[in-house]
Amino acid sequence: MSPETQQRSATILIIDDEPVQIRAIVAELNALGFETLIARDGADGLRKAERGLPDLILLDIRMPGWDGYETCRRLKADATTRAIPVIFLTALCDTAEKLQGFEAGCVDYITKPFDHREVLARVSAHLQQRHLFARMAEQVEPPGELQATPAGREHAHPRDADQPGLRLVYRAIDILLDEMADPPSLTELAHCVGTNQVRLGREFQTHLGMSTFEYLREQRLVRAQELLTTTDRPIQQIADAIGFKRPGDFATAFRHRFGMTPREYRKGHG
After folding, report:
1. How far apart are CA 79 and CA 77, in angstroms?
2. Looking at the whole model, is its pTM more than 0.70?
3. Is the distance from CB of 34 to CB of 11 less than 8 angstroms?
4. Could you give the CA distance from residue 99 to residue 270 in angstroms, rounded to a whole number?
């Protein structure tokens, strides 16, 4: 793999002692162009995180030796790895267990058995928060310039064959993130990026594995998660800022996504 490919790819470290369960996830992430690192226990995971500096970590909770909570605490205590977002992989769904995970430093949960669309959606959302997708978008060559790029550059992105569609997705993402509180309709959004709503919806499904609405909802809730953690803004104000006009709708969506209310989540990060 060339250095330019590495620059464009996100690396995901998976720490799980049951490789059979994660084989399909690894295959899917690799097929989408992500680099993956595998560790079988917490100590090995910490070593690989320190050496490989992945962009995101998927971490099982129930493991021999250090469990996921202890592993996460150690990752967050290490200056080298503390900024890497950690998503827990777990069969646990109890609110108290989730609060324990957020207190340890995780940013999200994915519940076993895995829905691969959910894995992709949550991984994509948290990588977006780290601006990796935006950085990758800036490096996509404009149409017609591929032949002028350095040798090997034409293979630098795993979806180069579909770059026109990928560019549409990135343009739409920029608009959705800028206008999260009051986004355009799908028809208006498609017009803004120079296509029609059928094609735009198809490109989102192809490249992100979700509809434009699902992507926007995911980004709204991840943004809410960040605001609840880093600010003391009232919850209704946060709901308004991300596009939920009714507090009940926001609380319901947040609970469905994170397994607890916004108030409970904020308390766990207090």
Report:
1. 6
2. no
3. yes
4. 11
